[in-house]
TrEMBL record:
Name of the protein in its database record: DUF7054 domain-containing protein
PANTHER family, alphabetized: BNAC05G50380D PROTEIN, OS02G0324700 PROTEIN
DUF7054 domain boundaries: 14-92
Amino acid sequence: MLMSKQKKNQAGKGARILISVNVIGSAGPIRLVVNTEELVATVMDSILRTYAQAGRLPVLGTNTDNFYLSAGGEVLPPSDTIGSHGVWNFFLWKKPEVEKFTGVECPVTRVMTLNRKGHGLSRKLGHGSWRAWFSKSLKISSH
C-alpha cells in the first residue's frame, strides 16, 4: 500500500532520466538522475556540485553563469527544461574568457596544438587578434 502511494507522488513530479555529462577537460562523464521538468540552470548547478564533491580536476568553481551546457551542438538556454530536448548526453564547457582593453572587450582565443613529440595536446593563449587591431589603430596613415 505504501509503495503505490510513493509511485503516485513521483508520477506528478515528471519522469526521471539518467543523463551523462562530459565536462570538457575532465577525465570522464558525470552521470546524474534528474527530473525532465528541471531547469537547465538547476541541472548545471547539480553537475558542478557533483564534480566538486568528486574532487575532479581541473577545479571549475560553482558559478553556473561561467558555463554552457550543450546537446548536439546546440547551447541550451538556462530557462529551458532539461527534458524538452529529448537527449541524454550533454557537454558542459566554460564560457570563453573576455579581456578588457581600453574599454573594448576582446575575446581571448584558445588554441590547441600538439606538443613537440606529437602525442598530446597543449593549450596556449593566442592574443594575435587584439594585438593586430591595437597596432593597426596606432599607425598613422599618410595622406
